[in-house]
Every structure is written in structure tokens, then in C-alpha cells.
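Hi everyone,

Forwarding the result from last night's run.
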Amino acid sequence: MNKKVRLPNNPQPKQWLASERSRQYIASYKPFNMVDGEGIRCSLYVSGCMFNCPGCYNRAAQNFHYGKPYSDELEDQIITDMSKSYVQGLTLLGGEPFLNTQVCLRLCKRIRKEFGHAKDIWSWTGYTWDELQKESYDKIRLLSMLDILVDGRFLEAQKDLTLQFRGSANQRIIDVPKSLASNEVVIWDKLIK
């Protein structure tokens, strides 16, 4: 007997809006880690995700009320931590950063104001690059502030723990500025195949 494979939810364009979904909660903040992208990073895990990917490694963060509200104090701490010379950048994870654009845009704008492009910004998302191109202005604005995007839903059937910075083979590591400039997906040039 064949077992039915559960798949993540698939939204229509502009179906899920951060303004309607986000409670601006943070699941976790992890400074000075080396697993959420290249180099030493500060990682902000936002709360709330509607993709509901089977096998998600952070199920608790799917709840929009999980954790605690984002605060000025946390933002100041992130900026202080990022000012260390050995910190390469910020990583946004979740939950779903593109369903928490109020928090993520605010923080990204401050990082660009404080550090310019001396610090990079990575984000994971369940959205694909093509889906984000059809989304609401806040999601497109957040995308434009990133350096690297890891896109696509986690697919349990394609799970591969040997992949660099990805959980399943369908996910891509995208160089955002090069992709926006060329109007096509450009894969990160440091990808280990």
C-alpha cells in the first residue's frame, strides 16, 4: 500500500499578507553562530509560518504567538552584536521572514543605515524566487535588501543533510543583487555542489 506524501501549503500570490498574519513575535535570537549561513552570524528567528512543511525542523516557530514580541532592546542588542569585527552578517529565519516583514524590514533598514553593505543579510524562505516576484510590496522590498536568499519549501522527500545551508534538494542559494540586476536567478558563486 502506498503511503500518501504530505506536501507543504502552496499560497496564491498575495494570499498571505504579513499585515494580516504577523504578531511581530520572535521565536529566538542566536548571536555568533556559524550554521545559518557563511561566516559568523547573528540569527533572528521570527515567529509564524503557514507553509506547514512536513518534517520542519522548527515546528514551534510556525505559531505566530510563539516566543516574545520584537523590541527596541532586542534590536539594539542585535546591532551591538553585529558591530563586532568578526561578525559577517545577519540571518533571518523562522517561522517565515516574509510573513514578518514589519520586523524584518525594520531591522534590515537599520543594518543598512549602520553598516551599509559591510555586513551581509541572508534569509531563508518557503517562498520560491518566482513566487516572491508576484507578491506584495513589503515582500518585494525585503527581498531587495538581502544579499542571499535560500528559497523554496522544505520537501521531506528531497531531504539531504549533506547539502550546504539547505535541508532539501529543491532549495536554492540565490545571489539576490545579481539576480535582481539580471532579472533571472543567479545561484550563489560559493555553492559547494
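The longest strand covers residues 25-33.

Cheers,
N.
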